[in-house]
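Friendly challenge for the regulars: who can give me the structure tokens for this chain first? No prize, just bragging rights.
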Amino acid sequence: MARLGVFPGSFNPPTIAHLAIAEEVRRRYRLDRLDLVISQRTLAKEHVEHPLFHHRLEVLHQTVARYDWLRVEVTDRQLLADIAEGYDVVVMGADKWWQIHELRWYESVEHRNRALAQLPPVAVFPRHGFADPPGITLTLIDDGSHRSVSSTRARAGELELMTEAAREFARRTGAWIDRERYESWLGRTRNHRPSTGR
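First reply, four minutes later:
Bragging rights claimed.
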């Protein structure tokens, strides 16, 4: 029976750390497939409008195209416990691990405890500034070179942290790095209509 992992996230943009994490999780957990799952309304990030969702999704598909064991999935679910249902392992950063314990996402303490209890085995990767959960931390690289890689830093202009597909899209359109240029590119794209020959 195939072993399946799930890596939920906004991937805004996808980074070299996302790929390094995916590779390591696949190896350590002997996964046949790992799904990068992006929610149409990511918890705590519901108002992300730049770049547009379908552009972020397109870049993510381009990012995984060369890997036959990586797949992109879109979901309406928001809680990680719901997203991870049916998978053999769920992947998240140390920041997300602490976040999913916050009561604000749940109806009650009991609801939170039930949700956390139904999670499959959790692979937590280290994040700079967040304590590692004891016993379940997945250490990516011994020198810790990916701990400080983040989509936030990539959006701030560190294009080398983006995946190749994200980097190319950012340079071409301004996505993530230059909102004004991206909006201008969007306007040109929307206004362009191929000739019908009439």
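Residues 193-198 have pLDDT under 50 and may be disordered. Residues 4-191 form a domain with the Rossmann fold fold (CATH 3.40.50.620). Your move, everyone else.
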